[in-house]
Write a structure and sequence with these properties.
It is built from twelve helices and 26 strands. By secondary structure, it is α+β, with helices and mostly antiparallel strands. A seven-stranded mixed sheet has the order 9-10-3-2-1-12-11. It has a six-stranded mixed sheet with strand order 22-21-23-26-24-25, with helices on both faces.
Length: about 500
């Protein structure tokens, strides 16, 4: 009997052999060891030692034999004699139950680490043959939120440690008035965000880590007329704009009606003087083509309407970009139309398109904006220009957001009318960041009336009759826009 008892003790000692897992923490550059227990089928690791190796916070309930580990913003709950791990209240099952030894909880190493890698620490790698654990504790990549109220909306800035692929960012507003921004591959500091101070249209912030995706939810106090997000790279942040309607007092309505009476139009012939714009294969200069088209539009309006026409230039002179919208605003212009012709290294591309002031949504739009914006290099003073990216662009578009719908309508009308008279592809209405449109406190568009880089289209643009067709198309669009606005005002 005594021999049997001794044999049983020996077998138990053999069945649980202590060993160590070596750990390298890349975040701190430190090495450590995790105590283990093993039998023929399973290796168990100390939860306490694991927490220490990661320099994570640990909460213990010895009476209930429970441990809570706080790792990378997640709350990991483990219990002795249970095979379940709770990650932020979501259960995950290990292959076997956790064991309790000397007040510590020992977890099945491979099973627990697999759960942790898929939910919390993608940078964790375990080699069971070497009993080696390589850990890169991922810091929060979404660290803070800042809310700023504006007269026509609210700007939300999410501070990030790195840029994200725009393919992995999406947003929507549900029917209950929640704005959701999801960032695949993001790791959000829920404590920092959920305790943020709110203002403006933002009533509450709720953030959540769902697997490898960060979700930021904003409870809105009222409806918004539009929303968009943009990623800044310096500093790293994701900027969300939530635009709201302006107030509707009777005085305000009267002022708006007076403001909308389309009695002054500003026509802007792009480039000029020392800035030739783009030049075609046969030497045709953009500045000359667009000046002729612009003056033809103006003559049609002056002859057939009582509208006052203001030109940013009427001859071959250089006009700084900032001065063009200044002229428009000082003249109390009701719409601003900037006339250009396009270019592309691919000489086969041709057609016409109309642009709105927004962040470029395509590589082509961004390329067009970059080319047109290059004119500021010719200006003697450039201090008034900020980089037309990120927050600066958003602020500019927010300042003009009250005219966005009207700008869209005008752009669509221009494309329709050009399509009727011009034998060239309709390339549609697009968005891009043009300096020349910034600051125009009125509906504004930029018309690219053809590709001077295309030989056949360059030949057409040299013809007075073709330029007249372009001018008549834009003129007809302006008249239709005027009629539509006056009809709306009559109904209000």
């Amino acid at each position: 009997m005594i021999i049997c008892r001794k044999m049983l003790i020996i077998l138990c000692l053999i069945s649980f052999i202590r060993a160590d897992i070596r750990v390298f923490n890349r975040s701190t550059g430190t090495e450590s060891q995790i105590r283990t227990l093993s039998n023929s089928k399973q290796l168990y690791m100390s939860a306490r030692d694991f927490s220490g190796a990661l320099s994570s916070r640990l909460y213990e309930n010895q009476e209930r034999k429970k441990l809570v580990l706080y790792i990378a913003g997640r709350r990991i709950k483990i219990s002795a004699k249970s095979s379940f791990v709770m990650v932020d209240d979501q259960p995950f099952q290990m292959p076997v139950i956790a064991r309790e030894r000397a007040g510590d909880i020992y977890l099945p190493a491979q099973g627990f680490l697999h759960i942790l890698k898929s939910t919390t620490l993608p940078g964790i790698n375990y080699d069971p043959t070497r009993e080696f654990l390589d850990v890169d504790v991922v810091r929060f990549t979404i660290t803070a939120i800042d809310v700023e109220e504006k007269s026509n909306g609210t700007i939300v800035r999410l501070k990030t440690r790195k840029p994200f692929s725009e393919r992995n960012i999406s947003s929507f507003i549900n029917k209950h008035g929640w704005y959701y921004l999801t960032i695949a591959g993001g790791l959000v500091d829920t404590v920092a965000l959920n305790g943020a101070v709110t203002r403006g249209i933002i009533h509450r912030v709720e953030s959540e880590q769902i697997g490898e995706t960060a979700q930021i939810a904003l409870k809105l106090r009222s409806n918004v007329i539009s929303h968009e997000w943009y990623q800044n790279l310096d500093p790293n942040e994701i900027v969300v704009t939530l635009r709201t309607p302006l107030g509707k007092s009777s005085r305000r309505i009267k002022d708006v009606k007076d403001r909308w009476r389309l009695d002054t139009i500003v026509l802007d012939a792009g480039h000029g003087g020392k800035d030739p714009g783009t030049i075609g294969k046969y030497g045709t200069k953009e500045k000359n083509v667009v000046l002729d088209i612009t003056k033809r539009i103006g003559r049609l309006l002056e002859k057939n309407t009582g509208i006052k026409i203001v030109y940013t230039r009427t001859e071959d002179v250089f006009v700084p970009v900032w001065k063009r919208t200044k002229i428009a605003n000082e003249a109390n212009g009701k719409i601003f139309v900037s006339i250009h012709v396009n270019a592309n290294p691919n000489r086969k591309i041709k057609g016409f398109e109309t642009y709105l002031l927004q962040s470029g949504k395509s590589a082509d739009a961004i390329e067009v904006a970059s080319r047109e914006n290059a004119v500021i290099k010719l200006e003697e003073v450039r201090s008034q220009y900020k980089e037309l990216t990120g927050e600066n662009l958003i602020m500019a578009t927010m300042a003009q957001s009250m005219f966005m719908k009207e700008s869209v309508d005008l752009a669509a009308m221009i494309q329709i009318e050009l399509d009727k008279k011009i034998d060239s592809p309709n390339r549609g209405v697009k968005q891009a960041g043009f300096y020349v449109l910034i600051g125009a406190s009125m509906p504004n568009v930029l018309v690219e009336s053809g590709f001077i880089s295309n030989p056949s289209e360059e030949r057409n643009l040299k013809k007075p009759g073709y330029r007249q067709n372009i001018a008549e198309s834009i003129y007809n669009a302006i008249l239709k826009f005027k009629t539509s606005r006056e009809r709306i005002l009559a109904e209000e």
